[in-house]
Fold Elongation factor 4.
Amino acid sequence: KRRDRIRNFSIIAHIDHGKSTLADRILEKTSALTQREMQDQMLDAMDLERERGITIKLNAVQLTYTAKDGEEYIFHLIDTPGHVDFAYEVSRSLAACEGALLIVDAAQGIEAQTLANVYLALDNDLEIIPIINKIDLPGAEPDRVRQEVEDVIGLPGEDCIPASAKDGVGIDEIIESIVEKIPAPQGDPEAPLKAMIFDSLYDPYRGVIVYVRIMEGTVKPKQKIRMMANGKEFEVAELGVFTPKPTPKDELTVGDVGFMIANIKQVGDSQVGDTITHAAKPTPEPLPGYRKLNPMVFCGLYPVDTNDYNGLREALEKLELNDSSLQFEAETSQALGFGFRCGFLGLLHMEIIQERIEREFNIDLITTAPSVIYGVTLTDGTELEIDNPSEMPDAQTVDHIREPYVKAEVMVPNEYVGPVMELCQKKRGDYVDMKYLDENRVNIVYNIPLSEIVYDFFDTLKSSTKGYASFDYELIGYKESNLVKMDILLNGEKIDALSIIVHRDSAYDRGKHIAEKLKNLIPRQQFEVPVQASIGQKVVARSTIKAMRKNVLAKCYGGDVSRKRKLLEKQKEGKKRMKSVGNVEVPQEAFMSVLSMD
Ligand code: GDP
Ligand code: MG
Protein backbone atom coordinates (compact mmCIF):
# COMPACT_ATOMS: atom_id res chain seq x y z
CA LYS A 1 0.00 0.00 0.00
CA ARG A 2 1.19 3.50 -0.80
CA ARG A 3 0.26 4.68 2.67
CA ASP A 4 2.76 2.29 4.30
CA ARG A 5 5.50 4.18 2.52
CA ILE A 6 4.55 7.65 3.81
CA ARG A 7 6.60 9.26 6.60
CA ASN A 8 5.43 12.55 8.11
CA PHE A 9 7.92 14.34 10.34
CA SER A 10 9.22 17.65 11.69
CA ILE A 11 12.59 18.80 12.87
CA ILE A 12 12.62 20.28 16.36
CA ALA A 13 15.52 22.06 18.03
CA HIS A 14 16.59 24.97 20.15
CA ILE A 15 17.45 27.95 17.97
CA ASP A 16 20.82 27.68 16.19
CA HIS A 17 21.26 23.98 16.91
CA GLY A 18 21.08 23.31 13.16
CA LYS A 19 17.48 22.74 12.07
CA SER A 20 17.72 24.65 8.77
CA THR A 21 21.09 23.15 7.91
CA LEU A 22 19.87 19.60 8.49
CA ALA A 23 16.70 20.30 6.49
CA ASP A 24 18.89 21.41 3.56
CA ARG A 25 20.94 18.20 3.80
CA ILE A 26 17.81 16.07 3.82
CA LEU A 27 16.36 17.95 0.85
CA GLU A 28 19.56 17.36 -1.11
CA LYS A 29 19.39 13.64 -0.50
CA THR A 30 15.71 13.13 -1.07
CA SER A 31 14.42 15.41 -3.74
CA ALA A 32 17.04 14.15 -6.21
CA LEU A 33 17.90 17.81 -6.47
CA THR A 34 21.07 19.59 -5.58
CA GLN A 35 20.75 22.71 -3.54
CA ARG A 36 21.43 24.67 -6.72
CA GLU A 37 18.55 22.95 -8.51
CA MET A 38 16.43 23.38 -5.45
CA GLN A 39 17.02 27.10 -5.62
CA ASP A 40 16.23 27.11 -9.33
CA GLN A 41 13.04 25.25 -8.57
CA MET A 42 12.16 27.82 -6.01
CA LEU A 43 12.76 30.51 -8.61
CA ASP A 44 10.48 28.60 -11.00
CA ALA A 45 8.01 28.41 -8.21
CA MET A 46 8.20 32.15 -7.88
CA ASP A 47 7.56 32.54 -11.62
CA LEU A 48 4.65 30.27 -11.08
CA GLU A 49 3.61 32.49 -8.27
CA ARG A 50 3.40 35.30 -10.77
CA GLU A 51 1.66 33.29 -13.50
CA ARG A 52 -0.87 31.43 -11.44
CA GLY A 53 -0.93 33.64 -8.45
CA ILE A 54 -0.08 31.24 -5.70
CA THR A 55 2.04 32.06 -2.72
CA ILE A 56 4.71 29.61 -1.70
CA LYS A 57 5.58 29.04 1.88
CA LEU A 58 7.87 26.12 2.35
CA ASN A 59 6.40 24.61 5.47
CA ALA A 60 5.36 21.25 4.09
CA VAL A 61 7.46 19.71 1.34
CA GLN A 62 6.95 16.34 -0.24
CA LEU A 63 10.16 14.41 -0.90
CA THR A 64 10.89 10.98 -2.28
CA TYR A 65 13.57 8.63 -1.09
CA THR A 66 14.62 5.18 -2.18
CA ALA A 67 15.60 3.35 0.99
CA LYS A 68 18.10 0.52 1.50
CA ASP A 69 15.18 -1.90 1.31
CA GLY A 70 14.72 -0.83 -2.30
CA GLU A 71 11.31 0.73 -1.72
CA GLU A 72 10.50 4.29 -2.63
CA TYR A 73 9.22 6.31 0.33
CA ILE A 74 7.25 9.55 0.40
CA PHE A 75 8.40 12.02 3.05
CA HIS A 76 6.50 15.07 4.17
CA LEU A 77 8.82 17.42 6.01
CA ILE A 78 6.73 19.84 8.03
CA ASP A 79 8.30 23.03 9.29
CA THR A 80 7.47 24.57 12.66
CA PRO A 81 7.74 28.19 13.85
CA GLY A 82 10.66 28.79 16.17
CA HIS A 83 9.36 30.93 19.01
CA VAL A 84 7.50 30.46 22.27
CA ASP A 85 4.78 32.92 21.18
CA PHE A 86 3.77 30.41 18.53
CA ALA A 87 3.77 27.26 20.68
CA TYR A 88 0.23 26.40 19.63
CA GLU A 89 1.10 26.52 15.94
CA VAL A 90 4.12 24.34 16.68
CA SER A 91 1.93 21.84 18.48
CA ARG A 92 -0.50 21.66 15.53
CA SER A 93 2.32 21.21 13.03
CA LEU A 94 3.61 18.36 15.18
CA ALA A 95 0.10 16.91 15.35
CA ALA A 96 0.34 16.55 11.57
CA CYS A 97 3.34 14.22 12.01
CA GLU A 98 4.08 10.74 13.29
CA GLY A 99 7.67 11.54 14.20
CA ALA A 100 10.20 14.25 14.91
CA LEU A 101 13.93 14.62 14.48
CA LEU A 102 15.21 16.17 17.69
CA ILE A 103 18.46 18.05 17.19
CA VAL A 104 20.72 18.83 20.12
CA ASP A 105 23.91 20.81 19.65
CA ALA A 106 26.92 18.69 20.70
CA ALA A 107 28.60 21.66 22.36
CA GLN A 108 25.56 23.34 23.94
CA GLY A 109 23.52 20.39 25.09
CA ILE A 110 19.82 20.55 25.88
CA GLU A 111 18.40 24.08 26.06
CA ALA A 112 15.03 25.48 27.09
CA GLN A 113 13.40 25.22 23.66
CA THR A 114 14.77 21.70 23.21
CA LEU A 115 12.71 20.64 26.19
CA ALA A 116 9.67 22.76 25.29
CA ASN A 117 9.61 21.14 21.85
CA VAL A 118 10.08 17.66 23.29
CA TYR A 119 7.06 18.19 25.54
CA LEU A 120 4.97 19.24 22.52
CA ALA A 121 6.19 16.20 20.57
CA LEU A 122 5.37 13.86 23.46
CA ASP A 123 1.92 15.45 23.82
CA ASN A 124 1.33 14.41 20.24
CA ASP A 125 2.71 10.86 20.76
CA LEU A 126 5.47 11.35 18.23
CA GLU A 127 8.33 8.94 17.69
CA ILE A 128 11.41 11.02 18.53
CA ILE A 129 14.74 10.44 16.79
CA PRO A 130 17.48 12.18 18.79
CA ILE A 131 20.37 13.65 16.83
CA ILE A 132 23.54 15.11 18.28
CA ASN A 133 24.61 17.71 15.73
CA LYS A 134 27.83 19.68 15.24
CA ILE A 135 30.10 16.84 16.33
CA ASP A 136 32.73 18.51 14.13
CA LEU A 137 33.06 21.40 16.59
CA PRO A 138 36.23 21.41 18.71
CA GLY A 139 34.04 21.96 21.80
CA ALA A 140 31.71 19.07 20.97
CA GLU A 141 30.98 16.67 23.84
CA PRO A 142 28.72 14.07 22.23
CA ASP A 143 29.01 11.67 25.19
CA ARG A 144 27.97 14.26 27.72
CA VAL A 145 25.01 15.28 25.52
CA ARG A 146 24.06 11.63 25.01
CA GLN A 147 23.88 11.24 28.77
CA GLU A 148 21.81 14.42 29.02
CA VAL A 149 19.33 13.12 26.45
CA GLU A 150 19.00 9.96 28.51
CA ASP A 151 18.74 11.68 31.92
CA VAL A 152 16.62 14.68 31.01
CA ILE A 153 14.45 13.50 28.13
CA GLY A 154 14.41 9.83 28.97
CA LEU A 155 15.37 8.54 25.53
CA PRO A 156 18.07 5.82 25.42
CA GLY A 157 21.43 7.56 24.95
CA GLU A 158 22.60 4.91 22.50
CA ASP A 159 19.76 5.87 20.12
CA CYS A 160 21.32 9.29 19.50
CA ILE A 161 22.70 9.69 15.99
CA PRO A 162 25.93 11.69 15.95
CA ALA A 163 25.93 14.09 13.02
CA SER A 164 27.39 17.14 11.44
CA ALA A 165 24.79 18.78 9.26
CA LYS A 166 27.47 21.18 8.13
CA ASP A 167 29.87 18.49 6.89
CA GLY A 168 27.19 16.01 5.82
CA VAL A 169 28.10 13.43 8.49
CA GLY A 170 25.38 11.07 9.72
CA ILE A 171 22.78 12.21 7.19
CA ASP A 172 22.26 8.78 5.58
CA GLU A 173 21.73 7.19 8.95
CA ILE A 174 19.23 9.89 9.90
CA ILE A 175 17.23 9.38 6.72
CA GLU A 176 17.21 5.59 7.07
CA SER A 177 16.01 5.93 10.63
CA ILE A 178 13.10 8.07 9.43
CA VAL A 179 12.06 5.08 7.30
CA GLU A 180 12.68 2.51 10.02
CA LYS A 181 11.46 4.23 13.16
CA ILE A 182 8.72 6.65 12.27
CA PRO A 183 5.40 4.84 11.87
CA ALA A 184 3.36 5.09 8.68
CA PRO A 185 0.13 7.07 9.06
CA GLN A 186 -3.00 5.20 10.17
CA GLY A 187 -6.60 5.87 9.23
CA ASP A 188 -9.47 4.85 7.03
CA PRO A 189 -9.62 6.43 3.55
CA GLU A 190 -13.34 5.56 3.34
CA ALA A 191 -14.27 7.18 6.66
CA PRO A 192 -15.87 10.65 6.87
CA LEU A 193 -13.26 13.29 6.18
CA LYS A 194 -11.09 14.65 8.98
CA ALA A 195 -8.42 17.01 7.71
CA MET A 196 -6.44 19.01 10.24
CA ILE A 197 -5.41 22.56 9.44
CA PHE A 198 -1.86 23.18 10.62
CA ASP A 199 -1.26 26.47 8.84
CA SER A 200 -2.94 28.83 6.45
CA LEU A 201 -1.97 31.92 4.60
CA TYR A 202 -3.67 34.56 2.57
CA ASP A 203 -2.79 34.83 -1.10
CA PRO A 204 -3.95 37.98 -2.87
CA TYR A 205 -4.91 36.04 -6.04
CA ARG A 206 -6.27 32.75 -4.75
CA GLY A 207 -7.62 33.65 -1.36
CA VAL A 208 -6.62 31.53 1.59
CA ILE A 209 -4.27 28.58 1.05
CA VAL A 210 -4.84 26.00 3.74
CA TYR A 211 -2.16 23.52 4.78
CA VAL A 212 -3.77 20.26 5.81
CA ARG A 213 -2.95 16.81 7.04
CA ILE A 214 -5.58 14.21 6.18
CA MET A 215 -6.29 12.07 9.26
CA GLU A 216 -9.34 10.19 7.98
CA GLY A 217 -11.16 9.98 4.66
CA THR A 218 -10.41 11.39 1.24
CA VAL A 219 -11.04 14.79 -0.29
CA LYS A 220 -11.33 15.76 -3.96
CA PRO A 221 -11.74 18.97 -5.93
CA LYS A 222 -15.32 20.30 -6.34
CA GLN A 223 -16.42 18.69 -3.08
CA LYS A 224 -18.21 20.79 -0.48
CA ILE A 225 -16.26 21.05 2.75
CA ARG A 226 -17.12 22.40 6.19
CA MET A 227 -14.94 24.09 8.81
CA MET A 228 -15.99 22.48 12.06
CA ALA A 229 -15.05 25.44 14.31
CA ASN A 230 -17.51 27.88 12.74
CA GLY A 231 -19.61 25.68 10.43
CA LYS A 232 -18.75 27.69 7.31
CA GLU A 233 -18.83 25.77 4.01
CA PHE A 234 -16.69 26.09 0.91
CA GLU A 235 -16.13 24.26 -2.36
CA VAL A 236 -12.67 22.77 -2.94
CA ALA A 237 -11.13 24.48 -5.98
CA GLU A 238 -7.70 22.92 -5.91
CA LEU A 239 -5.69 20.35 -3.95
CA GLY A 240 -2.02 19.59 -4.15
CA VAL A 241 1.39 19.08 -2.60
CA PHE A 242 4.57 21.15 -2.60
CA THR A 243 7.51 19.37 -4.21
CA PRO A 244 8.47 22.25 -3.50
CA LYS A 245 6.60 23.44 -6.58
CA PRO A 246 2.86 23.47 -5.90
CA THR A 247 1.69 20.35 -7.75
CA PRO A 248 -2.04 19.82 -8.15
CA LYS A 249 -3.49 16.40 -7.18
CA ASP A 250 -6.88 14.88 -7.90
CA GLU A 251 -7.26 13.79 -4.31
CA LEU A 252 -5.68 13.95 -0.86
CA THR A 253 -6.21 10.90 1.31
CA VAL A 254 -5.21 9.42 4.68
CA GLY A 255 -1.65 10.38 5.64
CA ASP A 256 -1.28 13.00 2.93
CA VAL A 257 0.01 16.45 3.72
CA GLY A 258 -0.69 19.22 1.24
CA PHE A 259 -2.57 22.36 0.39
CA MET A 260 -6.19 23.16 -0.30
CA ILE A 261 -7.68 26.20 -2.01
CA ALA A 262 -11.41 26.70 -1.60
CA ASN A 263 -12.28 30.33 -2.24
CA ILE A 264 -11.83 31.17 1.43
CA LYS A 265 -11.57 34.91 1.91
CA GLN A 266 -9.91 35.27 5.30
CA VAL A 267 -7.54 33.16 7.37
CA GLY A 268 -9.92 33.54 10.29
CA ASP A 269 -12.13 31.00 8.50
CA SER A 270 -9.38 28.40 8.38
CA GLN A 271 -8.03 28.37 11.89
CA VAL A 272 -4.98 26.41 12.85
CA GLY A 273 -6.02 23.23 14.66
CA ASP A 274 -9.53 23.16 13.18
CA THR A 275 -10.94 20.08 11.44
CA ILE A 276 -12.23 20.18 7.87
CA THR A 277 -14.91 17.66 7.02
CA HIS A 278 -17.32 16.99 4.14
CA ALA A 279 -20.52 19.05 4.17
CA ALA A 280 -22.52 16.11 2.80
CA LYS A 281 -21.13 13.40 5.07
CA PRO A 282 -19.61 15.14 8.09
CA THR A 283 -17.71 13.38 10.83
CA PRO A 284 -19.51 13.56 14.18
CA GLU A 285 -16.32 14.37 16.10
CA PRO A 286 -13.68 16.96 15.24
CA LEU A 287 -10.03 16.10 15.87
CA PRO A 288 -8.83 16.80 19.41
CA GLY A 289 -6.63 19.75 20.26
CA TYR A 290 -8.39 22.65 18.56
CA ARG A 291 -8.52 25.83 20.53
CA LYS A 292 -9.16 29.39 19.61
CA LEU A 293 -6.04 31.45 20.04
CA ASN A 294 -6.44 34.31 22.43
CA PRO A 295 -4.04 37.22 22.57
CA MET A 296 -2.15 37.50 25.84
CA VAL A 297 -0.43 40.85 25.46
CA PHE A 298 -2.10 44.14 24.56
CA CYS A 299 -0.86 47.59 23.71
CA GLY A 300 -2.11 50.80 22.12
CA LEU A 301 -0.83 51.72 18.66
CA TYR A 302 -1.22 55.39 17.71
CA PRO A 303 -0.03 57.18 14.60
CA VAL A 304 2.49 59.93 15.36
CA ASP A 305 0.84 61.92 12.60
CA THR A 306 -2.93 61.97 13.10
CA ASN A 307 -3.37 61.99 9.31
CA ASP A 308 -2.09 58.40 9.30
CA TYR A 309 -5.06 57.09 11.28
CA ASN A 310 -6.88 55.62 8.28
CA GLY A 311 -3.62 54.28 6.89
CA LEU A 312 -3.00 52.54 10.20
CA ARG A 313 -6.42 50.93 10.12
CA GLU A 314 -5.83 49.69 6.56
CA ALA A 315 -2.44 48.33 7.59
CA LEU A 316 -3.96 46.40 10.49
CA GLU A 317 -6.74 45.06 8.26
CA LYS A 318 -4.18 43.85 5.71
CA LEU A 319 -2.05 42.18 8.38
CA GLU A 320 -5.13 40.57 9.90
CA LEU A 321 -5.89 38.85 6.58
CA ASN A 322 -2.86 36.70 7.18
CA ASP A 323 -2.81 36.55 10.93
CA SER A 324 -5.93 35.39 12.69
CA SER A 325 -4.33 35.83 16.11
CA LEU A 326 -3.88 39.57 15.67
CA GLN A 327 -6.74 41.51 17.25
CA PHE A 328 -7.48 45.20 17.16
CA GLU A 329 -10.20 47.68 17.90
CA ALA A 330 -10.38 51.45 17.74
CA GLU A 331 -9.65 53.26 20.97
CA THR A 332 -9.24 56.86 21.98
CA SER A 333 -6.71 58.13 24.43
CA GLN A 334 -7.00 61.57 25.98
CA ALA A 335 -3.25 61.85 25.63
CA LEU A 336 -2.66 60.25 22.23
CA GLY A 337 -5.89 60.79 20.33
CA PHE A 338 -7.29 58.19 17.93
CA GLY A 339 -5.57 54.83 17.69
CA PHE A 340 -6.07 51.11 18.18
CA ARG A 341 -5.90 48.70 21.07
CA CYS A 342 -4.16 45.62 19.69
CA GLY A 343 -3.84 42.11 21.07
CA PHE A 344 -0.90 39.78 20.39
CA LEU A 345 0.14 36.24 21.25
CA GLY A 346 3.28 37.52 22.94
CA LEU A 347 6.00 40.12 22.87
CA LEU A 348 7.71 38.86 19.74
CA HIS A 349 4.43 38.81 17.87
CA MET A 350 3.85 42.40 19.02
CA GLU A 351 7.27 43.53 17.85
CA ILE A 352 6.84 41.85 14.47
CA ILE A 353 3.53 43.60 13.83
CA GLN A 354 4.83 47.01 14.95
CA GLU A 355 7.86 46.68 12.75
CA ARG A 356 5.83 45.63 9.73
CA ILE A 357 3.49 48.60 10.11
CA GLU A 358 6.41 50.99 10.28
CA ARG A 359 8.42 49.38 7.47
CA GLU A 360 5.86 48.08 5.00
CA PHE A 361 3.24 50.74 5.51
CA ASN A 362 5.53 53.61 6.39
CA ILE A 363 3.58 54.79 9.41
CA ASP A 364 5.40 56.10 12.46
CA LEU A 365 3.86 54.72 15.62
CA ILE A 366 3.58 55.65 19.24
CA THR A 367 3.36 52.39 21.17
CA THR A 368 2.08 52.24 24.71
CA ALA A 369 3.53 49.84 27.24
CA PRO A 370 2.25 46.28 26.77
CA SER A 371 -0.26 44.96 29.28
CA VAL A 372 -1.66 41.54 30.10
CA ILE A 373 -5.37 40.82 30.70
CA TYR A 374 -6.39 41.27 34.32
CA GLY A 375 -9.43 39.61 35.83
CA VAL A 376 -11.19 42.10 38.07
CA THR A 377 -13.98 41.36 40.55
CA LEU A 378 -15.84 44.44 41.75
CA THR A 379 -17.28 44.78 45.24
CA ASP A 380 -20.78 44.32 43.77
CA GLY A 381 -19.70 40.98 42.28
CA THR A 382 -19.31 42.13 38.67
CA GLU A 383 -16.51 40.40 36.75
CA LEU A 384 -14.41 42.42 34.29
CA GLU A 385 -11.51 41.68 31.97
CA ILE A 386 -9.17 44.63 31.70
CA ASP A 387 -6.41 44.78 29.09
CA ASN A 388 -5.79 48.51 29.34
CA PRO A 389 -4.50 49.82 32.69
CA SER A 390 -6.20 53.18 32.18
CA GLU A 391 -9.55 51.34 32.27
CA MET A 392 -8.94 49.78 35.66
CA PRO A 393 -11.84 50.91 37.90
CA ASP A 394 -11.25 52.97 41.05
CA ALA A 395 -9.66 51.01 43.87
CA GLN A 396 -12.67 51.54 46.16
CA THR A 397 -14.94 49.62 43.80
CA VAL A 398 -12.50 46.72 43.29
CA ASP A 399 -12.80 43.63 45.46
CA HIS A 400 -9.82 41.75 44.04
CA ILE A 401 -7.68 41.45 40.92
CA ARG A 402 -6.34 38.28 39.31
CA GLU A 403 -3.43 38.14 36.88
CA PRO A 404 -2.10 35.50 34.45
CA TYR A 405 0.83 33.34 35.60
CA VAL A 406 3.28 31.39 33.49
CA LYS A 407 5.46 28.42 34.28
CA ALA A 408 8.96 29.57 33.34
CA GLU A 409 11.88 27.21 32.80
CA VAL A 410 15.37 28.65 32.76
CA MET A 411 18.44 26.56 31.93
CA VAL A 412 21.80 27.88 33.01
CA PRO A 413 25.32 26.81 33.89
CA ASN A 414 25.80 26.27 37.64
CA GLU A 415 27.48 29.52 38.43
CA TYR A 416 24.40 31.53 37.40
CA VAL A 417 21.88 29.77 39.60
CA GLY A 418 22.15 32.56 42.19
CA PRO A 419 21.45 35.47 39.84
CA VAL A 420 18.60 33.61 38.10
CA MET A 421 16.86 32.77 41.37
CA GLU A 422 17.33 36.32 42.56
CA LEU A 423 15.76 37.61 39.36
CA CYS A 424 12.82 35.21 39.59
CA GLN A 425 12.19 36.21 43.21
CA LYS A 426 12.36 39.87 42.29
CA LYS A 427 9.79 39.16 39.59
CA ARG A 428 7.42 37.79 42.25
CA GLY A 429 8.11 34.24 41.14
CA ASP A 430 7.08 31.17 43.17
CA TYR A 431 9.80 28.54 43.24
CA VAL A 432 8.67 25.22 41.77
CA ASP A 433 11.65 23.03 41.06
CA MET A 434 15.35 22.83 40.30
CA LYS A 435 17.08 19.94 38.57
CA TYR A 436 20.60 19.26 37.47
CA LEU A 437 20.84 18.44 33.77
CA ASP A 438 24.41 17.30 34.30
CA GLU A 439 27.13 18.33 36.75
CA ASN A 440 27.40 21.77 35.14
CA ARG A 441 23.92 22.81 34.17
CA VAL A 442 20.68 23.38 35.97
CA ASN A 443 17.03 23.66 34.98
CA ILE A 444 15.18 26.13 37.23
CA VAL A 445 11.39 26.28 37.28
CA TYR A 446 9.34 29.16 38.68
CA ASN A 447 5.73 30.26 38.38
CA ILE A 448 5.89 33.97 37.53
CA PRO A 449 3.24 36.58 36.71
CA LEU A 450 3.14 37.11 32.94
CA SER A 451 3.21 40.87 33.48
CA GLU A 452 6.66 40.49 35.06
CA ILE A 453 7.89 38.56 32.02
CA VAL A 454 6.58 41.32 29.77
CA TYR A 455 8.31 43.80 32.02
CA ASP A 456 12.01 43.52 31.38
CA PHE A 457 12.55 39.82 32.12
CA PHE A 458 14.39 38.74 28.96
CA ASP A 459 16.90 41.54 29.02
CA THR A 460 17.73 41.19 32.69
CA LEU A 461 18.04 37.42 32.34
CA LYS A 462 20.41 37.81 29.43
CA SER A 463 22.63 40.37 31.13
CA SER A 464 22.74 38.60 34.48
CA THR A 465 23.80 35.29 32.90
CA LYS A 466 26.12 36.69 30.23
CA GLY A 467 23.76 35.29 27.63
CA TYR A 468 24.15 31.69 28.84
CA ALA A 469 20.58 31.21 29.97
CA SER A 470 17.88 29.79 27.75
CA PHE A 471 14.29 30.41 28.66
CA ASP A 472 10.81 29.21 27.84
CA TYR A 473 7.38 29.62 29.38
CA GLU A 474 3.77 28.53 29.12
CA LEU A 475 0.59 30.03 30.51
CA ILE A 476 -0.75 28.12 33.53
CA GLY A 477 -3.73 30.21 34.67
CA TYR A 478 -4.87 33.11 36.83
CA LYS A 479 -4.02 33.93 40.45
CA GLU A 480 -5.11 36.66 42.81
CA SER A 481 -2.51 39.36 43.46
CA ASN A 482 -2.30 42.57 45.44
CA LEU A 483 -2.28 44.91 42.46
CA VAL A 484 -2.92 48.62 42.16
CA LYS A 485 -3.21 51.06 39.30
CA MET A 486 -0.58 53.75 39.15
CA ASP A 487 -1.21 56.95 37.19
CA ILE A 488 1.38 59.33 35.83
CA LEU A 489 0.67 63.07 35.80
CA LEU A 490 2.51 65.62 33.69
CA ASN A 491 2.00 69.22 34.63
CA GLY A 492 -0.84 68.11 36.88
CA GLU A 493 -2.64 66.28 34.08
CA LYS A 494 -3.20 62.52 34.19
CA ILE A 495 -1.72 60.86 31.07
CA ASP A 496 -3.93 57.83 30.43
CA ALA A 497 -1.44 56.18 28.08
CA LEU A 498 1.15 56.06 30.87
CA SER A 499 -0.98 54.32 33.50
CA ILE A 500 0.24 50.90 34.65
CA ILE A 501 -0.84 48.13 36.98
CA VAL A 502 1.78 47.29 39.62
CA HIS A 503 2.12 45.13 42.68
CA ARG A 504 1.51 47.19 45.81
CA ASP A 505 4.86 46.21 47.32
CA SER A 506 6.84 47.58 44.40
CA ALA A 507 4.59 50.57 43.64
CA TYR A 508 6.77 53.09 45.45
CA ASP A 509 10.01 51.99 43.74
CA ARG A 510 8.41 51.81 40.35
CA GLY A 511 6.84 55.24 40.76
CA LYS A 512 10.14 56.80 41.77
CA HIS A 513 11.93 55.15 38.91
CA ILE A 514 9.38 56.25 36.32
CA ALA A 515 9.31 59.84 37.57
CA GLU A 516 13.12 60.01 37.30
CA LYS A 517 13.14 58.37 33.93
CA LEU A 518 10.50 60.67 32.45
CA LYS A 519 12.42 63.65 33.77
CA ASN A 520 15.38 62.56 31.67
CA LEU A 521 13.41 61.51 28.61
CA ILE A 522 11.11 64.48 28.18
CA PRO A 523 12.97 67.47 26.78
CA ARG A 524 12.80 70.76 28.61
CA GLN A 525 9.83 72.90 27.68
CA GLN A 526 9.30 76.65 27.88
CA PHE A 527 7.98 76.15 31.39
CA GLU A 528 8.63 73.93 34.38
CA VAL A 529 6.83 70.55 34.23
CA PRO A 530 6.17 68.55 37.40
CA VAL A 531 6.06 64.74 36.95
CA GLN A 532 4.03 62.77 39.49
CA ALA A 533 3.22 59.11 40.05
CA SER A 534 0.06 58.54 42.01
CA ILE A 535 -2.07 55.73 43.36
CA GLY A 536 -5.62 56.99 43.63
CA GLN A 537 -5.26 60.49 45.07
CA LYS A 538 -1.96 59.76 46.74
CA VAL A 539 1.22 60.95 45.05
CA VAL A 540 3.93 58.34 45.65
CA ALA A 541 6.78 59.91 43.68
CA ARG A 542 7.61 63.14 41.89
CA SER A 543 10.27 64.88 39.85
CA THR A 544 10.54 68.15 37.94
CA ILE A 545 11.53 68.92 34.37
CA LYS A 546 13.17 72.34 34.55
CA ALA A 547 12.24 75.06 32.06
CA MET A 548 14.36 75.51 28.98
CA ARG A 549 16.94 78.19 29.41
CA LYS A 550 17.56 79.52 25.92
CA ASN A 551 16.92 78.77 22.29
CA VAL A 552 19.08 75.84 21.15
CA LEU A 553 19.87 77.65 17.95
CA ALA A 554 21.13 80.72 19.74
CA LYS A 555 24.53 79.24 20.36
CA CYS A 556 24.95 78.57 16.64
CA TYR A 557 24.41 82.12 15.56
CA GLY A 558 27.36 83.33 13.66
CA GLY A 559 28.67 79.79 13.66
CA ASP A 560 28.87 77.61 10.62
CA VAL A 561 25.73 77.01 8.62
CA SER A 562 26.02 73.29 8.08
CA ARG A 563 26.20 72.67 11.79
CA LYS A 564 23.08 74.72 12.27
CA ARG A 565 21.29 72.79 9.55
CA LYS A 566 22.30 69.53 11.13
CA LEU A 567 20.90 70.64 14.41
CA LEU A 568 17.61 71.58 12.79
CA GLU A 569 17.41 68.22 11.04
CA LYS A 570 18.11 66.46 14.26
CA GLN A 571 15.34 68.36 15.93
CA LYS A 572 12.97 67.50 13.12
CA GLU A 573 13.90 63.85 13.40
CA GLY A 574 13.19 64.02 17.11
CA LYS A 575 9.88 65.82 16.48
CA LYS A 576 8.67 63.02 14.28
CA ARG A 577 8.34 60.83 17.34
CA MET A 578 7.00 63.48 19.68
CA LYS A 579 3.45 63.68 20.79
CA SER A 580 2.00 66.82 22.24
CA VAL A 581 0.26 65.72 25.41
CA GLY A 582 -1.65 68.48 27.12
CA ASN A 583 0.89 71.16 26.35
CA VAL A 584 3.96 68.99 26.96
CA GLU A 585 5.98 67.47 24.11
CA VAL A 586 6.52 63.80 24.95
CA PRO A 587 8.85 61.49 22.95
CA GLN A 588 7.89 57.93 21.94
CA GLU A 589 10.39 56.36 24.37
CA ALA A 590 8.50 57.85 27.28
CA PHE A 591 5.48 55.65 26.62
CA MET A 592 7.59 52.52 26.79
CA SER A 593 9.79 53.81 29.60
CA VAL A 594 7.24 52.88 32.23
CA LEU A 595 8.25 49.33 31.45
CA SER A 596 12.01 49.07 31.63
CA MET A 597 13.97 49.15 34.84
CA ASP A 598 17.34 50.37 33.53
P1 GDP B 1 18.53 26.67 13.26
O1 GDP B 1 18.36 27.97 13.97
O2 GDP B 1 18.26 25.51 14.17
O3 GDP B 1 17.77 26.58 11.96
O4 GDP B 1 20.09 26.54 12.94
P2 GDP B 1 20.85 26.71 11.56
O5 GDP B 1 20.69 25.51 10.69
O6 GDP B 1 20.52 28.03 10.97
O7 GDP B 1 22.35 26.67 12.10
C1 GDP B 1 22.84 27.62 13.02
C2 GDP B 1 24.33 27.80 12.83
O8 GDP B 1 25.00 26.58 13.12
C3 GDP B 1 24.70 28.14 11.38
O9 GDP B 1 25.77 29.05 11.41
C4 GDP B 1 25.13 26.80 10.81
O10 GDP B 1 26.06 26.95 9.76
C5 GDP B 1 25.77 26.14 12.01
N1 GDP B 1 25.71 24.69 11.93
C6 GDP B 1 24.65 23.90 11.64
N2 GDP B 1 25.00 22.60 11.66
C7 GDP B 1 26.31 22.57 11.99
C8 GDP B 1 27.26 21.50 12.18
O11 GDP B 1 26.98 20.32 12.04
N3 GDP B 1 28.52 21.88 12.53
C9 GDP B 1 28.88 23.19 12.69
N4 GDP B 1 30.15 23.44 13.05
N5 GDP B 1 28.03 24.19 12.51
C10 GDP B 1 26.76 23.90 12.16
MG1 MG C 1 16.52 28.03 11.00
The chain has a mean pLDDT of 88.
